[in-house]
Design brief:
Blueprint lengths: L4 E4 L2 E4 L4 E7 L3 H17 L6 E5 L16 E5 L9 E6 L4 E8 L5 E8 L2 E9 L7 H8 L7 E7 L17 H16 L2 E3 H5 L10 H4 L2 E4 L6 E4 L2 E6 L6 E10 L4 E7 L10 E5 L6 H7 L3 E5 L3 H12 L6 E4 L6 E6 L5 E8 L3 E8 L2 E10 L4 H10 L7 E8 L3 H10 L32 E2 L8 H8 L7
Parallel strand pairs: 3-4, 9-10, 17-18, 23-24
Antiparallel strand pairs: 1-2, 3-16, 4-6, 5-6, 7-8, 8-9, 10-14, 11-14, 12-13, 15-16, 18-20, 19-20, 21-22, 22-23, 24-25
Length: 473
Amino acid sequence: MAAASTEVGGRTTERERPLHILTVNVNGLKTNGKGLIEELEKLKSENREVDVLFLTETRIGDADALTNFKTNWEIFFTCNDSRSKGAAILVNKERAFRCLDEIVDESGRYVILSCFISETFCTFVSVHHHPEGSGILNELSEKIKPLYTEILVVGGDFNTALDEKKDRTSTSDNPGHNRIRKELLSFMGKHDLKDAWRDKNPPTNTRRMDKNKKYTHKYTQKETYELHYSRLDYFFINADKRNLVQDCRINDREISDHRSVSLMLDLKDQTRELKIVSCTVHNLPRDEDLTELCPDIILLAKRGAEHEDYINKIKEEEGKTNWTVLWSDHSNAAILVTKRRRDIHILFTVYKEDCVILHCRVFGMFHTFVSVCHPEGTQENLQNMLQEITPSYSGTKVIGGIFSTSGQIKKKLMKEYNFHEPADRSMQLASLIPAQLTQIYKIEKQEKFLFLIFTEMNVDDLIRSLGQLKIHH
């Protein structure tokens, strides 16, 4: 059956085909560029066309060495022709792709690329860790912004065997490996990264595996002239996305003194559904109804001491329930966030007398959720609330609660702030942002005005604002 396709930016992308990312140490692009092109053509003939290419040790001082790639690839690279330097990321023009941000290290050690690819927000990092280099991973930790991305993939040549027994054949002590390994393990822990190849190939399955299948580099030991093998080239992916890894393999062909590594990501099921309930405490559905509905976020409007006691009780029992309660005793609104989903990350909360504002990361993007209680609402207090949530760092804004203001005022404000209101309980957002709220549940059991509002923002504005936003946990 033919793969489903969609038209994006004038290009057609096969959304059913896995995203193939390849990393290889080319040991000089001018020397081994021809072999790299032959490998790419071979993989394409095997229906394993490469979509994103990580290159390390390119050793190029200008763009001339990349001339043969310019027709078919978007190119992001470092200019550094000193020995054992240079990194690059190339993106196949056949894939739906939009660059959002790039960071290129002037010393030639890494390239960081944030982008939309096949409608998914990704950050790719190509790294060449020189055996004598130090501090590169700490520097990367400052520059990588995992809060801003849905999928983080770090790949390249790290010049260490992650497991000194399982990832190398030599038994001699290597101080350089030991130092880099310690730094790398710390880096992985800080960013919650998993070794994609080892995840797919646990030690019990690799004992009798051919050396070509489990090592990426071979070398001759100077003292003994013995041939040894090691795994120095890796792909790391954020742990909560490891289920997207369809395959990770070390390829047979030697392009230089290194073999390439392939990472296959299945992105076709990356649509997301978020269920939101907005209601008063009095009209909160019964526990059995909530269990059936299984909401992710509940926007609660509180009125009266009885409701305050109820929220206090939930908050006191928070450790025993499935909800994180966001409420202060001077607020007439509250937000409950489910604990069962790992992809909702609370960043910070603002408490007002008549609303609670939650800024969080959902599916890798910033969102703002607001629970409002304006029983005697006026244009002024509604407008003040809207101004409070207008800052452009939020991708999608969802507002729920009680308002008592004229329809004319509401329409005017919605137009002014570019909001729109769903016509029914189910709505598909047409947005580039991958965190699509594909199904919105609205419970309307009261005469008071209850609504959910959405807004979309320009992706470029979002990226520009990321550098200005400071998150305090």
